[in-house]
Structure formats: C-alpha cells, structure tokens
Amino acid sequence: MSTLKRRDFLGASAAAALLASSGAVRAGSQSQPGRIIATEEAFAPKRYFQEYLKLAERNESMVTRYLKMYYEKPQVVKQLGDIDIRLEDMDRHGVDMHVLSMTAPGVQVFEEALGTELAIETNEEIASIIKRYPQRFAGLATIAPQAPEKAAAEIRRCMSELGFSGVIINSHTQGEFLDNPKFAPILEEAIRQQAPIYLHPTFPPDTMIEAYTDYGMMGALWGFQAECSMHVTRMILSGVFDRYPELQIVLGHMGEGLPYWLGRMDNRYQNILRRGGLKPLGMTPLKKLPSEYFRSNFTVTTSGMNWQPPLNYCLDLMGPDRVMFAIDFPFERTGDAMGFLMDAKKTLPTKVYEQLSHGNAERLFRL
C-alpha cells in the first residue's frame, strides 16, 4: 500500500491561536487542520512481558493462558514496543500522532513493589519516545493503583516533569474498583494535575470470570466491556462524581456499551428512589441522574468500533466535543480504522469531523 500524502497544514497558525487562547494547547504546539490523532494506542516495554510470563508460570489461570498465546509471540512484543514498526504503520496510513498507553492488564496484576517499579520504568521509556518524536507521540502515565499514594506521586511526576497528557488505568486492580475510598489519592491527584483518566477494560476479576471463560468471551469479544461498564456503573452509583465533580474519564470502544444503557439506568434509579429503596439496597443518593454524569464527566473514543451507527449515536447523545478517534493499535488494523474515519468525514459536518479526528484530543490531553 502506498504512503498517503501528509496533511495540508494551511491555516494552522489561526487554529493554534484559537486553542491557545483557551489554554488548551501546550506551549510550542499547533493545531493543524487535517491532523489525525489516535488516542488509545497500546504500548509495553520488553520487561513487562518478561515479568508477566514469570507470573504466568507461578500462577496459571485462564487469563494467563489466554495472554501467553500473545505474549510468547515475538511479533506481538515488537508491535507493542518497537517504535520504528509503529511509525512505519502510522506513515503508511496517514496517522499524525499516537497517544501511547500501557497495554492491559498492565502493571496492576503485579504485587505492589514490582508494579510500582514497572510503572516508573514504562513512563521513563514513553517519555524518551516523546522526547525523540514530540510531534508524533504523546503519553498517558502508567500507575500501580495497588499502591495509591505512590501512584498519586507518579501522576504528579509524569504530568509536571515528564509532560504526559493523562493517566491510564486498566480498570480493576486485583478485584478492586475506583469507587473504593482507598483510591482517593489517585483521583484527587488526577484532578490537581488536570489529568484525564483513560479507564481501559481488562479481564473480569476472579469473582466473576467463570461465566466468561467459555467461547472466548473473557477478552475483548465480550468480557472486557462487561467488566469496564460495571466499573463505571459502580463509580457513578457510589457518588464518585459528586465527590469529585471535576474528574474526567475517557472510555474506549464507544463507551463500553454504556451509552445505549443510560436511559434504562436513569429509569431504574428513579424507580428505586421513588419507592424509598436506596437505603435498603445500600445505594447512595445522587445529585444528578446517572446519564448526566456520563455526559459531563466522560469522553468516549472509537477504538475497535469502526462502525458508523454507534458513532452517530454517541455524537448525538454526548455531543461532538466528547467523542475522539482511536485505533487500538496493534490489536486493530490501522487501515480499517482510517477507512472508517474517512467514511465518517464524508457524512459529518467539517467542524464535527475536525473535533473527532484531532480537536477534542488536543483540548482534553492538551496536545
């Protein structure tokens, strides 16, 4: 396949001035008409694979057997860690920037000390890549939530010293979710640093995984979205966004199925509230309806969902300022995602397409 021509950059200065006036763009950066930013692009250093395979030998399970099928293949390791392979793929398809984030399940599966160490090493490696290619890569900080105070310190370091754009959390941490008060230091530091949290799915925890182990259901086919949507529902219903109204969460895969379910969630919450059932069911009174938190505290990306109907639905439901383009490289093919984006360009208003392809990412991640 021939390399696509680079994007037309005419008018970049005017667009940059507009974004800079709102504080959305980092010093020295430009908003470029036609720019394409992919916002959920997996990365992993070599040591991560080495440590995970050691863990898999010690603790064999359905999940470790599942991941060993991938992690023992040299090509998978190269695609996730080799920047030259990544750049060649980006150039071939006309992608200007990848926002790099630690692949799932990431460092959250390890014990506290090793997870924290691997998080720091991963962030140092991503930071070195960004320094070499500042126009091509941005990064989301890897943290080990199993050590909340250390994780908060790493958010602070990555955002204030290394120039990262947000945080990646690969959903539950050894069966614990972000509604747990123990994770408050992480949420508070993310707010202080104006760091959106990309909540990426992972395999269902041990307490619920058995029903997903048949038919290949426990991974991205179904278990990922089931796990992550449950995580988000816990956060909303527990009052996380009443306690932290400035917290911003990014969800991939067109919102992990939640946009379709919000009306039902509102309906059932109101029904329980009217019947006086919140306290008996251990529920928290909320200041707003569940769907209102989703519209004010969440942004969704298109990763792995190269289909126009859910894109149109999310744009209508959430508004064009809360949907971003993503590929899910290397687990999805860049050509498929770019074909989907170019089809969307034909039908969307120019301003909406520009927000989808790069504008919202520039604003939210301060690129």
UniProtKB/TrEMBL annotation:
Domain annotation Amidohydrolase-related: ranges: 82-367
GO annotation, cellular component aspect: cytosol
GO biological process: secondary metabolic process
GO molecular function: carboxy-lyase activity; hydrolase activity
Source organism phylogeny: Bacteria, Pseudomonadati, Pseudomonadota, Gammaproteobacteria, Cellvibrionales
Keywords: Lyase, Signal
Annotated signal peptide: 1-27
Protein name: Amidohydrolase
